[in-house]
Structures
1.
Amino acid sequence: MQELDRTAPASGNWRVELIGVPAGADVHLRLRLESVMEGVLVSGDIDVPVTGSCARCLDPIEDTLSLDVQELYAYEGSTTEATSEEDEVRRIEGDHLDLEPLARDTVVLALPLAPVCTEDCAGLCVDCGQRLDDLPADHKHEIVDARWAGLAAKFGSDASTSSPGAPGESPTTEEN
C-alpha cells in the first residue's frame, strides 16, 4: 500500500454550464494505492475549488468541493480487463496510473447543473431584473393593460391593472 498526498494544477475544461474548476487551480489529492488481485485500487479524497454563477440570481459563487473517490485500475491481461468493456475500467499503462481522468470525471460529475448561491435564493425580478433578495417584500410593478390606459388616466383608478373585461371587474369563465 502506498499513500499519496499531492497538489496538482487542474487542466482546462473541468466545468458544466454555470460552474467549474478554474484552469490551473490547485487540485489536492489524498489517495491510497493498494495492490489487489486484479490491479491497483485507488481510494481517497479530492479537494478542488469551484467558481461560477448562481442559476437564479447570477451572483458569483466560490466554493470548495471535497469528494471521495474509489477506482480500480486493472492490470493488463487481468480478468477484470478481459470481462469489461474498454470504457468501463481504467487500465494501468506500463508502470503508470493516469489519475487526471479519474479526478476530472469525479469533479465534473459532482458539479451541480443549477448551482445556487444560497438554498433560499429567490432569483431575479422578472420585470426589472433586480435581485429579489435585495428588494423589499412588497416589491411589485404596475402592469398597465393598454386597452384601459385611457380610462385609468382619466379616472386615476387601478382599472389599468385589471384583466380583460370591464374596468375593475374580474373576468369570469365558465367551463362546461
2.
Amino acid sequence: MSTGSLDSLMGRRSDIPMTSKKKPRRPRRKKQIYSSDLDADGRTIVASQLSEADFQNQLRTYSRLLGWLYYHPYDSRRSDPGFPDTVLARGDRIIFAELKKVGGKVSPNQKLWLNTLSEHPTVEVYTWYPLDWDQIEEVLK
C-alpha cells in the first residue's frame, strides 16, 4: 500500500486549485455622517436620518444610563407577531415601547398588543419615533 498526499487519497488532483462556491461577503458600509446631519449641539444625528436599529441603540444606551433594565429581542421574527420592540423596567414602573423610524407605521398586530397592554393600569405603553426624543427623556427621568 503506497502512501500519498491527502489530495490523492481523496481523489483530487493537486494541480487544480480548490475554489469556494460561496461568494465573499461584502463588508457592511458604515453610514457616512456629514455636518449637515448633526443638530445644533453637533453630537447627534438628525432624527429623520436615524434607522430603527440606530434609534433602538440610542434608546438602549440612554435608558441604561438612567438605570433602566432594557430588553429587546435579538430576532423578533421568531416571536409572536406584534409584540412591542422594547421592554423597560425600573422600580415599580414597566414600559412597553414600539419604536419606529420616521415614516414607519404600526402594524395591526402591533396595535392589538399595544392596546391590550395599555388596558393594564400599571403598565405604560408608547409608540416612539426619533422625533419624540424630548418625550422619551421626560418619560425615562
3.
Amino acid sequence: MRVKNLCWSVLTFMVVALMGMSFASCGSDDDDDVKKEEVSAIVGTWQGTKNKMAETLIFNSDGTCSEESVLEVGSYQLKNRQTGTYIEKDDKIIITFDKFEEWDPTKGKWYDVEKDKETVEMTYSKTDNKITDSDSVTYTKK
C-alpha cells in the first residue's frame, strides 16, 4: 500500500511540474513588440538643411547613428561626418557622437578629426514624423 501511495505521489508531482513548465513558457512578448515598433519609427534616413548645408541623419536599429553634412561652394563640396549612438526618451532623441571625419576630395577618402565627444538632444514628433535639433533644423524621413 505504501509503495502504491508513493507511486501516485511521484506521478502527481511529475504531472504538476510538467504543467507548470508548460504555462511558464507561454509568457507574453507584447513588450518586445512595442519596443521594436518605437525603435523602428526612428530607424532610417532623415534629411534637413541648415544654412545652405545639406544634413543627413541615419538611425540604425542597433542604436548606432551617423550624421553627414555637405556644403557646396561652387564646384567644391565640404563634407563632414560624425558617428555615434543614440537613445530615445519620450519625445527626445539623445545622440552621443564619438567619431568625427572630414572628406578629402583630392584623395577620395575620409580622415579622422580629433574632437571630444559631443552629445546632442533632438525632439521627435511622431504625429508630424519630423525631428528638430537644438538649432531648429527640421529633418524629415526619406
4.
Amino acid sequence: MKDLVHNLLAVKSIDPIVGNNTTEGTGVGVDLAGFEGALMLAHLGVSGDTLSGSVYVTVGFQESDALGSGYADIAAADLLGGANNVVVDAAAEEEVIIQRSYIGAKQYVRVLITFTGTHTNGMPIAAVVIKGLARHNPVQ
C-alpha cells in the first residue's frame, strides 16, 4: 500500500445539509494553488420529494480565476470522468456520488448543485474537492 494522507488534501465545498434551494447548493470555492489536479465529488442522498422532469437537481462543476466571483462551468476538455451538469430527476438516480477530475488551469473550483422546481422536503447534499499532485509534499 502507498501513503495517501501526505499526498492528498480533502477540502469541503458544500457542508452536509438537507438542501432545497440553489443557495444551499452553491459550493465554496477551493484554492488549488500548489496542486496540479483535483477530484471533485458531489454526494446526493435520497430526496424527500418525488423527482421528475419538473422537480430535479443538476450537479455542476465550476472554475474561476478569483475566489469570490467569476465562476463558470468547466469545459469538457478540462473535466474527466463524464459530462458536466448531471441531471438527477428520478428515484433510481438518487443516493449517488458524482465525481469528476479537474485538469484545467484555473486556481479555484467549486461544486454547484442547482435545485429546479419545488423541493419542499429537500435532499441531503454535500461536496468535497480532493486536491492532488502537490508541488510540495507532505501536504499535511
